[in-house]
Amino acid sequence: MGVLLERERELEALGGVLAGLPSGGGCLVLVGGEAGIGKTSLLRELERRAGGTLFLVGACEPLSVPVPLQPLRDIAEAAGAADPASGDRVLVARELLAALAARAPVVAVVEDVHWADPTRLDVVRLLARRVEGTGVALVATYRADEAAANPPLAQLLGDRAGGGGEARRSRRRRRRLRRPAHRRQPVPRRGGDRSR
Ligand SMILES: Nc1ncnc2c1ncn2[C@@H]1O[C@H](COP(=O)(O)OP(=O)(O)OP(=O)(O)O)[C@@H](O)[C@H]1O
Ligand SMILES: [Mg+2]
Q1: In what side-by-side order are the strands of the sheet with 27-33?
Q2: Ligand that comes closest to the CA of residue 114
Q3: Peptide bond into 186 cis (omega under 30)
Q4: What does the pLDDT average to over 147-176?
Q5: Range from 67-71, 115-119, 155-159 carrying the lowest mean pLDDT
Q6: Whose CA is nearest to atom 5 of ligand 1?
Q7: Is residue 172 within 6 Å of ligand 1 at its C-beta?
Q8: Alpha-carbon distance 69 to 122, whole Å?
Q9: Which of 74, 101, 177, 188 is most open to solvent, judged by the fewest CB atoms within 10 Å of its CB?
């Protein structure tokens, strides 16, 4: 991968989350931004800098028929957990979190949750509620411009703003990526060139 430009602030904030994991931190981190803005690159760079911290990654895909609970099953398998025997969302979340906590400090990345179906997003929400104090950072990436088309995702994003007090805010971080200056297009002027 090439050099990642203008992401020091984000890397510092995420580095702070990682630094808190060995002493029992744990939270949900939502990384949003438009397609191609650099969500995946940011997390790869974070992993590169994180040294020994284990990163387990699963990605949602825009399949015509969704595979049940993918990519959470990929993450569970990588964490050494048995394939979820039932489709019970609470049980799936509990087993997955136990497997992740056993490997802590660990970062579990669920990529592209704008493509996740309601069941997968329910599991992400259940994990987010239980993640505090486990040494697990659950990171979900999403395309911000596609979030509104996925009501359960909009609800997950709204959880943060929708109250719940300090405890909830302290275990959730949300970052919306802006386009780095070198990749910004000049904005065309309206009504002709006024510089003359
Ligand atoms: N900060 C940056 N500096 C330099 N190049 C970048 C930066 N961010 C992203 N890129 C480049 O932009 C391209 C797209 O990045 P990336 O795949 O990380 O975007 P994304 O937000 O994950 O996209 P998608 O929504 O499709 O998953 C890659 O070629 C990557 O190397
Ligand atoms: Mg990506």
Answers
A1: 54-59, 106-111, 136-143, 27-33, 172-176
A2: 1
A3: no
A4: 71
A5: 155-159
A6: 4
A7: no
A8: 10
A9: 188
Atom of ligand 1 nearest to the CA of 41: 18
Question: Which ligand places an atom closest to the C-alpha of 42?
Answer: 1
Say what percent of the chain tops pLDDT 90.
67
Q: Does the pLDDT of residue 129 top 80, yes or no? A: yes
- Alpha carbons 162 and 51: distance in angstroms, whole number: 35
Look at ligand 1, atom 25, and give the residue with the nearest C-alpha.
Answer: 35
- The amino acid occupying position 194 is R
- pLDDT, mean of residues 130-139: 96
CA–centroid distance, residue 37 to ligand 1 (Å): 5
Query: Which ligand 1 atom sits closest to the C-alpha of 7?
Result: 1
The structure's pTM equals 0.87
Count of Cβ atoms closer than 10 Å to residue 155 Cβ: 13
Q: What is the mean pLDDT of the chain?
A: 87
Cα 39 to ligand 1 centroid, rounded to whole Å: 6
Domains present along the chain, CATH in parentheses: 23-179 (3.40.50.300)
